[in-house]
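ligand=iron/sulfur cluster
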Amino acid sequence: MSRLLFQGVPGDADESNQLRIGSAAPSLIPDPCSLIPASDKLHEECGVVAVYGHPHAARETYLGLYALQHRGQESAGIATADGHHLANIKGMGLVSEIFTDDVLAKLPGRMAIGHTRYSTTGDSALLNAQPIRVDSTKGLIAIAHNGNLVNLGNVRARLERDGAYFQTTSDSEIIVQLIAHSSAGSLVDAIADSLSQIEGAFSIVMMTRDRVFAARDPHGFRPLSMGRIKNPGGADTVVFASESCAFDLLRAEFVRDILPGELVMVSEDGVTSRQYASGIPQSSCVFEHVYFARPDSRIFGRWVQESRDQMGRQLARESGVAADVVVPVPDSGVTAALGYAEEAGIPFRFGLIRNHYVGRTFIEPEQRVRDFGVRLKLNPVHNLLAGKRVILIDDSIIRGTTSRKIVRMVRGAGATEVHLRISCPPTISPCFYGVDTPSKKELIAANQSIEGIRHYIEADSLAYLSLDGLLQCVRDENNVGYCTACYTGNYPTQWVDVEDILPATAAI
Ligand code: SF4
């Protein structure tokens, strides 16, 4: 049973957990240790969902979060409002572990916001799980946030000088504190005023007792879309989600992306929108198309599946090599591998099988077993690989340790040659916009030549997709601008406070 934090829930409310601007800090509840085997992938950021005008708003939000589970598996939360009260329940673990029928029954109301989290700043404690519910000078507010702010130090110090008392280490509380301390007359003006003072990546959903808000940062780093559920004989339900794949489970129609710098409000008067910031070049995260987002999502105006297919095709054009089979590193390498195989005219085969049931509580029985973590997740299909020249397709090399294990695994299954192809450029710089990246000294491509990496991972050849090639694969008539900072080191914001970003903790 997951450990839960209740806020404002009738009968179960632990009011000591109620955050109040200026009140004494509640004690942090320690994070249950995750024993999942270490991974050499970049970690997902967060997923957010909001629902306005549905009799089962909590359940709809649960379904939306379920579809967004790939964006964060550390904690999840749902807050609901019924026009009078604002209840919030969050816990550590997966959405389905936390939100049983009994728990969902404690969340009444026609409005809800939800969040699934992989921690990027702040510690992993339950109190930092989201939504964060705050009793502010502007009334009760619940907020859930995907992304990372990069001027935390300046804003936090200024707020503290103005008397703010921070009770979590989460970015999201900074936003609520700014709203509480804003001199703007109305709540919506205070939100717009606050969002214009922060820099970095944020796709936000927010809720008061009777309204739901959704906003994206002016650069549009993270995706956020709006949809509608048609209700025969009644008003439509308005929904928001980090990725459109969540709408499918809700049977909602995709309406549009929230624009960079846009603040949308849904109330009994309907949907209203304002641009709180404009004139800033868009820099949406290209790595969402490469790896994070689900292929069945449409983000930044295009289908992720289409982008990945194009990346595979472009990779085949740029760095083709004679081979017998194209094998994806599952799951994220699959779509690019299909594109590569079709373009190269080489058969596609599932030569590596992923175990989808590796749980969070796995305890490694013997530390000394070589490559055990990777072998637990992936297993080679010997009869597809033996005696074959294999092109392996993956979406990134971070430290190189996992890639080396996979190359060894394929060779150990009898492959005569192993050629690794990566569907994006070398990752040379950390991300400060909501993706948990190791420091530069741990990124193998920041420290070694491509030949050096090839030698380390023991592949017969290694090639990455070029930056120009990648951008060709994600550009269309919408002319979206993309952030490529982890491939170039050119950051689209001034990140003067990056020392405030906690160092990445992902283990090798
Ligand atoms: S640095 Fe990389 S991962 Fe981070 S927002 Fe930019 S493209 Fe995305």
